[in-house]
Specification:
This protein is an alpha+beta fold and about 90 residues long. Helices cover about 60% and strands about 15% of the residues. Strands 1-2 form a two-stranded antiparallel ribbon. The chain is flat. The protein starts with a helix and ends in a 6-residue tail after the last strand.
Length: about 90
């Protein structure tokens, strides 16, 4: 029993380090870019973040009206009926 709790603690530490280390490196990079002589370098990461969020916003708008096809088959395996159902955001 005690061995499993040790493995749990070790895996928790590994998970925390794998999450916090990249975040700390990005923060350090942002601070370093802001302190450079050319202050416009400090806008690289916020600009990339803005572009990524706009891309995510536009992709939600594009893929929110995805239609599905439903095909019914008879006992011989041939398609007899086909429906095109379009799903709307917030509906079913």
């Amino acid at each position: 029993m005690a061995m499993w709790s040790v493995f749990g603690i070790i895996s928790l530490l590994i998970a925390l380090i794998s999450i916090l280390l990249p975040v700390a490196l990005v923060v350090a990079l942002q601070v370093w870019l802001c302190k450079r002589k050319n202050r416009w370098l400090g806008l690289i990461l916020p600009g990339l973040s803005l572009l990524f969020s706009l891309a995510m916003l536009l992709s939600v708008g594009v893929f929110s009206h995805v239609g599905t096809s439903v095909v019914s088959y008879d006992e011989h395996g041939t398609g007899v009926e086909e429906h095109h159902e379009e799903s709307h955001p917030g509906v079913g």
